[in-house]
Amino acid sequence: MKIYTRTGDAGETGLFGGERVPKDSPRIEAVGAVDEANSQLGLARSLLPAQAAELAADLEHIQNDLFDLGSDLATPAGSAYEERVRRIAAADVQFLEERTDHYTELGPPFAGFVLPGGHPAAAALQVARAVVRRAERRVVSLAREEEINLELRRYLNRLSDLLFVAARWLNQQLGVREPLWKKR
């Protein structure tokens, strides 16, 4: 099987179910932003030291969720393929809230605005957080134009919170000073 199909050469791509849409449609922009976020999480995960195995497992779980989230976005409501897609649900959002609370409790107290940085894996988590925020903005834009699963917005919003506290926790665990914003 060849990886290229040539079906997208005219600037269109297929949704799950076969409908063709422009590659710059709001739905595909949202799917692409989620894919970027997932890739950034993969990079952050690859940089984690061995003592962050729990966080690595959480990120693997989230990366799988993000694949499901992309499929959810790529499958319009009422599609003939709807039964074949796992929709993001309130339980997925709850998982993120529980993990956010966990890393918040274990992490350092908030002492001011944090600059992205510190250990390379923590910095990568902060980049992933920013990319997730972009994905959230793309999903919000899509929701203004088309019907979507509203749990997607909640999931991405909670995910960015989790990545922020996880980066702070990681810097603390590794004894790396957290860079703070200095007002001028």
Tell me the helix content: 55-70%
Through-space gap between termini:
58 Å
- Sheet with the most strands, sense and barrel status: 2 strands, antiparallel
Spans with pLDDT under 50 lasting ≥5 residues?
A: none
CATH topology: Hypothetical Protein Ta1238, Chain: A
Q: What count of helical segments does DSSP give?
A: 5
Q: Report the CATH architecture.
A: Up-down Bundle
Specify the CATH homologous superfamily. Answer: Cobalamin adenosyltransferase-like
How many domain regions? 1
**Total number of strands:** 2
**Structural class, please?**
mainly alpha
Question: How are the strands ordered across the major sheet?
Answer: 1-2
Quickly name the level 1 CATH class: Mainly Alpha
Order of helices and strands: EEHHHHH
Q: Judging from the principal axes of the Cα atoms, what is the shape?
A: elongated
Fold and architecture overview:
This protein has helices at about 25-45, 55-75, 90-105, 120-145, 150-175, and strands at about 10-15, 20. The protein is mostly helical and about 180 residues long. It has a single domain, classed as Up-down Bundle (Hypothetical Protein Ta1238, Chain: A), CATH 1.20.1200. A two-stranded antiparallel sheet has the order 1-2. A hairpin with a 5-residue loop joins strand 1 and strand 2 (about 20). Helix 1 packs antiparallel against helix 2, helix 3 runs parallel beside helix 5 and helix 4 (about 120-145) packs antiparallel against helix 5 (about 150-175).
